[in-house]
Amino acid sequence: MSEDKAKTLQFIRDYKNHQVLWDSRHKDYNNKKKRIVALTDLGIKYNMNLRFIKNKIKSLRSYFSKEYQKVARKTEGERYRSSWFAYKHLLFLLNASPKKLRIDEQVENSDESCDDDGESQEKTAVAACSAKKYSGGKAFN
User: What's the predicted TM-score (pTM) here?
Assistant: First the structure.
């Protein structure tokens, strides 16, 4: 494993240990001061400023979300398996924010369930149809 990948995996472990940064159910998740303290801890450890730490977290979460959507997408034949080295290490994020990831997945999978007037049998598909209808056919992000 390259040194960069090893550092990224260590960063992910440290990020996971700062639950206040990623778990919306954490009691201090909405406490800005405690979140800044946690970000500062990461910044000191990795000798990075807060902006870079936030960008690193955003990048990892975004790529993980895209990979998760590929894995979760139901297709005929074999399912997609992520080959991204950090994918398995970020699975803990599903425990904290399954709502957003599941909503994204439901919108992706609801294409077949939308008919011309936007009616649907499932509530999630109704929401997805409405979102597509009012956003010019694209789901809200």
Answer: 0.66
